[in-house]
Amino acid sequence: MGSEGKSSSNGTPISELEIDATLVHRLLKDQHPDLAHLPIHLIDAGWDNAMFRLGDQLSVRLPRRKVAATLIENEQTWLPLLANQLPIPVPNPYRLGNPTQEYPWRWSVLPWLPGQTADQEEPNATQAKLFASFLRSLHVPAPCNAPKSPVRGVPLSHRAVSVEERMQRLKIKTNLMTPQIRNTWNIALNTPVDVPAKWLHGDLHARNVLVQNGVITGIIDWGDMTAGDIATDLASIWMLFFDQNVRQQAIAEYANISEATLQRAKGWAILFGVMLLDTGLVDHPRHALMGERTLCRVSEDG
Questions:
Q1: CATH at 71
Q2: Computed from CA positions of residues 174, 176, 182, 187, in that sequence, does the dihedral angle turn out positive or negative?
């Protein structure tokens, strides 16, 4: 989903460049010629990046918007410092790509991680403990020069205007903007941040989690990594696990989550759910379903 900026009902942002396998081949031939013989095919294009598979063991990720160029640089700089402490594989950059006259931004060659995204195959109940362990391992103090995001890890009040604009649109289009969702959002909005800033993934929705045979096999798309409120990442519990008891297990396993942080986490889950549903209804049914599921789960948990 990536860097969304202002509230918009325009759906998925359009690519600012034409990025195809031919371009990727030319970039590889110029900068990493030992990889240029490998077959290349498009896998997916998200809000911020295009992803290609490169042979059997690698992938190539290229920003498709100027706003994403900084995000991929953050990922290239900071993810290698965290990767070895995490209990779930992450796409630690294998090779770096530089801008050219033909393509203006940095790009990455990454290891290929197996599995399909968690919106297509949900993790099974046994994964709650592993996922909580992953979050705990990630949520450590970040250095003072860690990237700061204007939209992730921030107080929810910074996001209130855009979220409430989306809620108003969704009130007309769906029956999911219930009094309970509004109440949970308002409580979260008025709950101060009570924990120090830690490293965050920043965008832990279901399409950034890989699953194979019910097992989480990778956490991808680290462009939004930042230092901030852990509640941003804890929202993923409602985006990944359909069973209320499993969500409770994940919360218990993470351990020592304050009531205030739990309230903010539900607020962040509503934020992500509303954004996915609002934009997804325009042009991305998978995102719309992810948003609907998230909002229903938050409602179920009260």
A1: 3.30.200.20
A2: negative
Of the residues 91, 112, 133, the one at which a domain ends: 112
Mean pLDDT on 125-133: 97
Dump pLDDT digits (tens) for 31-81. 999 999 999 999 988 888 999 999 999 999 999 999 899 999 999 999 999
Largest CA distance in the chain: 58
* Stated pTM of the model: 0.94
**8 A C-beta contact, residue 4 and residue 224:** no
d(CA 280, CA 151): 19
Nearest CA among 88, 89, 85 for reference residue 129:
88
CB neighbour list of residue 63: distance below 8 Å, 6 or more residues apart: 48, 49, 69, 71, 72, 105, 106, 107
Structure tokens at 214: 């019910």
Which of 112, 145, 167 represents a domain boundary (last residue)? Answer: 112
Q: Using alpha carbons, list the distances in angstroms from residue 57 to 39, 75, 113.
A: 11, 20, 8
Q: Where are the alpha helices (DSSP H) in the chain?
A: 21-31, 66-82, 127-138, 160-173, 179-189, 231-234, 236-240, 244-254, 259-283, 285-301
